[in-house]
């Protein structure tokens, strides 16, 4: 095995308390944004920093399976919005009564309001047919891509930029809109823009759709179902 040169390693110290607080603040106050977008375009260097943050994500076998389609064209965004409306109507029909009325009252995208969208995709062939760590679970490529989404989302929070993930689409609509080849998996459509305010809790909780679960109910000790 080749020795690792000393200059390729750094000391791993805990962050200062202010730095730690900033990291946890980004995690705790990150929100999914639908309606609070401001129209100002995001500066190129800021968008670049967000993409760099996404590109620093962990990936199985260091596969880096992602691509980032940066969408500024209003016509493209209008196309995605039409695709959303179609899928959202189908989704609403799956609920009945009060639940359906509540669903219909929710704002579930900001495609037209946000000045920028980024579609993040996953290329399963990025690192050849055999990928370290993915042999027994091919979905690891998509999990890696989701790590990139989360990196971008947290970096955006720190930059004062809101991000909204929209998944209420038929993939085929987005594929044909953006010319995405069949072998590429569509992972996320993200709406981005500056925001002047954010919900302090998830909007779906504030609007009575679903509440945060107690962590205690989700943590098991040593084996499935053994509550801590
Ligand atoms: C994979 C995936 C897909 C979606 C989402 C999230 C994720 C992770 N979310 C946002 C989701 O509703 C939100 O994260 C939760 O309600 C929690 O709120 P905060 O993100 O903490 O604000 C989301 N929100 C929305 O309004 N329309 C959507 O289509 C989606 N799709």
TrEMBL record:
Biological process terms in GO annotation: cobalamin biosynthetic process
Cited Pfam families: Nitroreductase
Annotated EC: 1.13.11.79
MF-aspect GO terms: 5,6-dimethylbenzimidazole synthase activity; nucleotide binding; oxidoreductase activity, acting on paired donors, with incorporation or reduction of molecular oxygen
InterPro entries in UniProt: BluB, Nitroreductase, Nitroreductase-like, Nitroreductase/BluB
Domain Nitroreductase: 27-194
SUPFAM superfamilies named among the record's database cross-references: FMN-dependent nitroreductase-like
Name by which UniProt lists this protein: 5,6-dimethylbenzimidazole synthase
Catalyzed reaction equations: FMNH2 + O2 = dialurate + 5,6-dimethylbenzimidazole + D-erythrose 4-phosphate + H(+)
Keywords, comma-separated and alphabetical: Cobalamin biosynthesis, Flavoprotein, FMN, NAD, NADP, Nucleotide-binding, Oxidoreductase
Family, per entry: Belongs to the BluB family.
Signal peptide start and end residues: none
Subunit relationships: Homooctamer.
């Amino acid at each position: 095995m080749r020795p690792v040169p000393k200059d390729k390693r750094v000391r791993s110290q805990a962050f200062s308390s202010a730095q730690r607080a900033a990291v946890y603040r980004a995690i705790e106050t990150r929100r999914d944004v639908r309606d609070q977008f401001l129209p100002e375009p995001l500066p190129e260097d800021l968008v670049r920093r967000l993409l760099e943050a996404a590109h620093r994500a962990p990936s199985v076998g260091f596969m880096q399976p992602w691509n980032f389609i940066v969408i500024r064209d209003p016509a493209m965004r209008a196309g995605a919005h039409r695709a959303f409306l179609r899928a959202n109507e189908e989704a609403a029909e799956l609920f009945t009564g009060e639940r359906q009325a509540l669903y219909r009252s929710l704002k579930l995208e900001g495609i037209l309001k946000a000045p920028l969208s980024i579609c993040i995709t996953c290329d399963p062939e990025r690192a050849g047919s055999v990928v370290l760590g993915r042999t027994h679970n091919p979905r690891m490529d998509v999990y890696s891509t989701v790590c990139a989404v989360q990196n971008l989302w947290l970096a955006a929070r720190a930059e004062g930029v809101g991000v909204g993930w929209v998944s209420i689409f038929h993939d085929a609509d987005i594929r044909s809109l953006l010319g995405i080849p069949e072998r590429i998996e569509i992972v996320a459509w993200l709406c981005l823009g500056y925001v002047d305010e954010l919900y302090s809790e998830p909007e779906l909780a504030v609007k009575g759709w679903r509440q945060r679960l107690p962590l205690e109910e989700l943590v098991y000790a040593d084996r499935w179902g053994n509550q801590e």
